[in-house]
Design a protein that fits this description.
about 130 residues, mainly alpha, Arc Repressor Mutant, subunit A, 5 helices
């Protein structure tokens, strides 16, 4: 039987597309220095071998939220035209990344195990 406290804790730490996108954005900004929104979207799509590309309706509100939380800093290439907004990770963003990296790892492992279990049971008959 599972511990009720751990069940409640997992329910609070839901791994969804937004959280996966957030950790990926922060990781790219750590490794690449700075990127603009479309560039991040393209890098994520390439990393996922074309199997997932975050929509504009997901990535841009998330970037604004991350900027409001001071995890990223954004600036316009041409401030008067506001054509392309670049982002870089902040010190606070690096701390947040290190925290969520630790928090998400068991959730990712669990999701992978569940998915593998379903694949084995349904498609391999194991």
């Amino acid at each position: 039987m599972s511990d009720l406290g751990s069940v409640r804790k997992r329910q609070l730490l839901k791994l969804n597309n937004t959280n996966i996108l957030k950790i990926m954005i922060l990781d790219f900004l750590i490794k690449d220095g700075s990127c603009y929104g479309y560039e991040l979207s393209a890098k994520i799509e390439a990393t996922m071998s074309g199997m997932w590309k975050p929509s504009n309706g997901l990535i841009y509100p998330l970037l604004r939220n991350m900027e409001a939380n001071m995890w990223v800093e954004g600036w316009w290439d041409v401030p008067d035209k506001k054509t392309r907004r670049n982002y870089r990770i902040t010190d606070e963003g690096l701390k947040h990344f290190n925290f969520i990296k630790l928090m998400y790892k068991p959730l990712l492992d669990e999701s992978l195990a569940v998915t593998q279990g379903v694949l084995n049971k349904i498609y391999d008959g194991k």
